[in-house]
Each structure stands twice: as C-alpha cells, then as structure tokens.
Here is the input.
Amino acid sequence: MVIVVIPTYNERDSLDPILDAVLKALPEAHVLVVDDSSPDGTGQLADAWAERLPERVSVLHRPEKRGLGAAYVAAYQHVLERWPDAQFIFQMDADSSHDPAHMRPMLEAAQDAGLVIGSRYTAGGRVENWPFPRLLLSRMGTWYARLATGLPVADCTAGFKCYRSEALRAVDLSSIRSNGYCFQIESTYRVWRAGFKVVEIPIIFRERECGTSKLDRSIAFEAVRIVTWLGVRRLLGREPRPTQDDQAGGGTSQEGQDR
Here is the structure.
C-alpha cells in the first residue's frame, strides 16, 4: 500500500490540480491531506474530495497552524496507526512544485532503500524559476547541513520523499525537534543514522504557480540552530552510527555528492 502525505495551509487554488495529478500518476496510492485549519477553505475542499473518493483520499484536520514539521509528524503517526500495512509513504508539497511524474521512479527506487529523495541538486536535477537569493539560501543550507552532520546527501532540504514504513517506524518521531523546513534535514538525518539506505532520484523542481512561500527568517534561524545541535551531538558520539555498508551505499552517487 502507498500513502501520499500532502500538508496544506491556504492551498485552495492548487489542491485540485495536485490531487488530480497524484491520483493519476499512482493509481494504487491513497492521499492523506493534512490541513492546519486553512482560513481559505482548503480543508473543506479536501473534504469534498474525500467524500467523492473515500477509497483514494482522506483528510487529517489539525486545529491550528503549528508548523510543517509538526504536520508531518502528526501525519506519519496517523498513517502508521491507521494503515499498518502501508509499505511506502510519500511526502510532497501541495503547490505543484513537485511533479507527480517523478513518483513512479521514486517508488521503484524505494524497493531497495529506506528513503528515496527527489533531489534538485544531484546529477540531472535542477530548479526552475527560483530567484537567485532563494537558490543561494537553499544551496548554502544543504552545504552547512552536510558539513555539520556528515549526511551524504546532495539535497538535504528536499521535501519530496518516499519512505519505507519500517524506516519511519525505526525513528522516534516524537523526538524530532524541527518544526520548519529544517524538518527535512533532521528526518533524513535520523533515517540515515538509523542505518537505512538513502538514495536520490533527480527531479525538476519548479517554483510554485500560486500561493506564497511559508519560508521566513525564524525558520532559517531554527535550521541553523538545530543542524548545529545535531552536528555537536555527532561529534560527541551521542548519535548512533550507521554501518559502514550503509555509509557507502546510503547517499547519492559520488558525482552527486561532489556537486
């Protein structure tokens, strides 16, 4: 069973096209929309989908906006409890920046990995229509995350992922400290440190066509603080070590790592 988690907050204009595209790309998938009480009616639109296609779409309503990390943690806990037979769990944005056409190759790669990342920065991947300051911030965030944590991943801040359920079960989700976009770094890091293979599939990432980005200064500061904390814990030997085999096979190709 495949579950696709899509967190939303004020994504009414983009929800219809992304749900339609995901359901067509993966006919075997069930989509869980996680809405943080969007004032624009996104949650009600998601409910309409769930009423029309109950076998394909569900909605998890949260009482208020509590951050991306908290939304994903709540969603993963919900999925693992409600669908214990789920084998693969995707996460992706609702704004159509993640192309569902990449989901099939990601799912195929997940047959032999604990986590597959839709990567913008490995060989063959790219970003379209981002302003240079945003691209620079993303690349610097990935560079610092790799330096501090040793994570052998070219795109540490990627939000397009496919987990095997056993990888999520092996991670103490309640211990994740990140609530903003740093959640992407910390969750990947914890899966890797738990000994699971992490691979990257190149994707084309396109800037959102509608809505506004949720990135702000406080989220960037949180990322620096938590990545530094993870790096210090690693240097002090307070994080479990992945096996040598996992370190050798768990990241991207060498070409991707050197970008």
Remarks:
- The two ends are 35 Å apart (CA to CA).
- The domain at 2-257 is CATH 3.90.550.10 (Spore Coat Polysaccharide Biosynthesis Protein SpsA; Chain A).
- Residues 244-259 have pLDDT under 50 and may be disordered.
